[in-house]
Amino acid sequence: MSDLPLSAKIIPGLGDILSTGTRIVAGAWPFGEADSFRELKVHIMGTTTTDMLARAIAIGCVQENIRPHITQSLYGSFMQDVLNPASEFYSIKPDIAVIVSDWRSLVADIPASTSEEDVSAIIDKKANEILSMWRRISQNCGAKIIHHFPPPPQFRLTGVAEQYLPASYTNQLQLLLRRLWSAETFGVQIIDFGQFALEYGNTAAFAPRSWYSAKLPIENSALPAYVPLFRSALRGALNTAKKALVLDLDNTLWGGVIGDDGVDGIKIGSGDAVSEAYAAFQSYVKLLADRGIILAVCSKNNPDIAKTGFDKPGSILKVSDFAVFEASWGDKASGLRKIAKQLNIGLDALVFVDDNPAECTLVQQELPQIGTVHLDGDPADFIAQVEQGYWFQFQKYSRDDFARTQAYAMRAAALAEQDDASDLPSYLRSLEMLGQAVRPSEGQIERVVQLGQKTNQFNLLTQRFDEQTVRGFMADDGNVVLACSLKDKFGDHGLVSVLIAKKQNDDLDIVEWTMSCRVFSRTFEQFIMNELIRIAQERNIRRIVGRFKATAKNSVVADLYERLGFVREGDDVWVLNLADVTVPLETYVTAVSV
Fold this sequence. Notes:
Elements: H1 14-25, E1 38-46, H2 51-63, E2 66-72, H3 78-83, H4 88-92, E3 96-100, H5 116-140, E4 144-149, H6 160-163, H7 169-182, E5 189-192, H8 193-200, H9 202-205, H10 208-214, H11 223-237, E6 244-247, H12 258-265, H13 273-290, E7 294-300, H14 303-308, E8 324-328, H15 332-343, E9 350-354, H16 357-366, E10 371-374, H17 382-387, H18 404-420, H19 424-430, E11 433-438, H20 445-454, E12 458-459, H21 467-475, E13 480-488, E14 491-504, E15 507-515, H22 524-538, E16 543-547, H23 560-563, E17 567-568, E18 573-577, E19 589-591
């Protein structure tokens, strides 16, 4: 992999980190023209020495097409920098704040006999301190936070008894993470070094000598494996997470070439080690789909023949598990472009997995924004080869995550029907769409926040409100918060749009409007606006005001307010005078009662 460009390496070499990373941290830029890179200010701080980790973070940023401007707090000054509003940290006003904690700063030295109730109270206090710090950074600085939490110390003391002792360091750290995970986290991305230790090897990554000699959080030898973990957290912070896993078929999801060997000749299922390894890999892929990762196929194959491979006894996956099935004799780069278009997501949201090094190299050269995984060697190692990229790292699940592949499959089915329709109105009418736009229930608030955090295309202002802010809007009866759900004849898409409008005197000012890309261009936006107009008229609101802030990804809604009948009033400000509204906007979505 050393001959690949830096951006194409899942795991960069230690030499890349120590040489190129050092230059970037020092302020140099060794990649020529930087116009194509997004510039971000990244500040690193914590209770450890962060110099070496900063070099790995610099490389991770470059791999995500970011030119970082890296600053660091002095060792030991972390909390002073956060608590002092006049500190350099707030004058820098970073885009990303990276926090690195060691276990000694998070646990309490308490008697082994301390009760579970008392330990819980101690951990609650520590969790509240951390949450307060996150809140301060988020509100006063506006930075996205990536917080590293350490593994427990390596000593076992008394073995199993120690593991389940409430006062043990291990239990304290685990309880603290659970407390933080269940709280409102202000969009913080948590990196669990404890899990990383299990995957990489605790002794190798977290040797005590690194701490005692230089207060380093991890060994330098572990930095290359850390880079993809940081990249995943960075994508989460920037709302550029990977969404879809695109898979080759032959010698990827089964052993052999189905076009040559036939269904009976491919290896999948039980009976021998190779067949079982491919079945295990399919089971792993199925588990990803069950957790909200969209599945697609991109294979050089006859599509009818290729699909029969999933009918073989022993195949865990079925054709219905894939939102898009792209099998043809065209090149893989073209196939991936088609898949992204059909799913209506960016190419940078795809991860492509193939056993053919030539195909992987082509994709890396043609479409470097796609995460590419070359499966090499024993199929028993395929899961580990995908896992080492940390491509899919969710902080929390929502109910909608578990039905995402089905939702995109429904979208693909609707698009297929569109191809057969004679005109757009007939097609939209044939979908038999049913919609709701109502105040969110308590159980929907997490999804309301998630849509705002994750949606990039239909997102007019990209505000990224957290749960506390959403609840604040809902607490004011003058505001309007709409959770919008859609069904059609193919199935239930769930909560796919959120609109928040804040009352300003006699106006309703739309401060957030997001919609999932899978229901674009169905007149659902007209349906939602009709409901907002109805509510506004009932409250004697004079005007609805909308704003648009352009980003690299939301050009699809640049003309939304114009299409909805708003009149431009200044730069990126649009106004709808309700006195001028006499008939509702045309929509093919029928309202259903709550």
